[in-house]
What does this fold into?
Amino acid sequence: MFPHLPGGPPRGDERLGWLAFWALNVGLALRAIGEPLAALRPTPMTGVLLPLAAALLILAMLTCPRVRAFAGRHESAGR
It folds into this structure.
């Protein structure tokens, strides 16, 4: 699905991959729970779930080394 990183292990740092995996899945689960709860019965707890879900999803995006490496390589190829 993603290109191999040049040099180093073929999949990059495995710990970052697992961090991205768990942050993405927990963030999606919290959002799936928080969105309906916020719509049906807004409480202070639902006010915490959605920002926490968003933070985890952003963390997952930033820690996925293969996507970040591909984006950098793509920009330099266009020059």
Notes: The helical segments are 14-40, 44-63, 65-77.
